[in-house]
Amino acid sequence: MSEIVLELNELACGYDDTPIVHELSLHLRAGDIGCLLGPSGCGKTTTLRSIAGFEAVTAGEIRLRGELLSSPTTRVPPDRRRIGMVFQDYALFPHLTVSENIAFGISRHPQRRRIVSELLELVNLDRLGNRYPHELSGGQQQRVALARALAPEPALLLMDEPFSNLDGDLRRRLSAEVRDILKARGISAMLVTHDQSEAFAMCDQVGVLREGRLQQWDTPYNLYHEPATPFVASFIGQGYFLRGQLLTPDTVQTELGVIRGNRAYQLPTGSAVDVLLRPDDIVGEDGSALTATITGKVFLGATTLYRLQLPTGSTVETLFPSHDDHPLGEVLGIRVAADHLVIFAAQGSVNVSATLPLEQMLAQGDSA
């Protein structure tokens, strides 16, 4: 099993005596890329700044490879933490060339020329070492910032919304490139973002934060298929909750019929439950007795997302291949294909959307 690089144990921190993060515990293994994901104001950047040493800790502790960095009585200065940082605005020195920016943190290293040359090649900027930041594109500037952070060979790399200033296509391509670079060099990293697709594409472990509290620290797959709380279920991916009744530990009665999952739920038999249904849980089936009317659609390229109204008035969503085109108002035969059933004790109203309304999805773009 890989060595643990970063440990947060019951961490609490904030700004100006205002608590932001509460009882946060997680660990990151060597070579893994982790992420703190959540809505604005949830505490993800505060946590990252505390790891970097820019903010004090009011409770708990931060350890890097077993060494205590922060606690209420201990605070190792940022420049002694062996931690690299990539900022949202790149923070490059405008009066220094690309090579000089990369060499800034290793100016006294006897092998600095070799290190800079290797890093320029690593980030595909080997012909641009003599240029200045203003002569580079946004993506190139971000590569320089990454190379500068890697130059001192940090034990951990922190990235605070590193791609948010880039357009959607470039952001996706650059995030994939950065992941490949980090994996090739075995570098452990922690990313902060509000973009789910970015977090899922880049990271091995993702922590979902809500109001300063960690809801779940898990793989992207488990966050989507096995959310630990209703908030995680709602925040991750698309979907709707339908009210149902638990018939047996693994079977629930809903207006879509009886649905059986792949595990037992520790809830009393007969209790009211909320069942999460993702778009990939609903599939088309010609001739099915279960039907729904198309009330909305969004073309997504390879697929089309349809909003369906059930005869009872409740709503679900489904994804079809884009060449399988259907008009608004058409009645479709459907069935449920959800062996990874996600169930919670009933809360609030029935059929609550777990995502933004369909009509907002295009405006939302790649943000989550």
From TrEMBL:
One of its GO terms (molecular function) is ATP binding. The keyword GTP-binding does not apply. Keywords: ATP-binding, Cell membrane, Ion transport, Iron, Iron transport, Membrane, Nucleotide-binding, Transport. The keyword Nuclease does not apply. CDD domains: ABC_Carb_Solutes_like (cd03259). Pfam families: ABC_tran, TOBE_2. Residues 6-236 form the ABC transporter domain. PROSITE patterns: ABC_TRANSPORTER_1, ABC_TRANSPORTER_2. This is ABC transporter ATP-binding protein. It comes from Halopseudomonas pertucinogena.
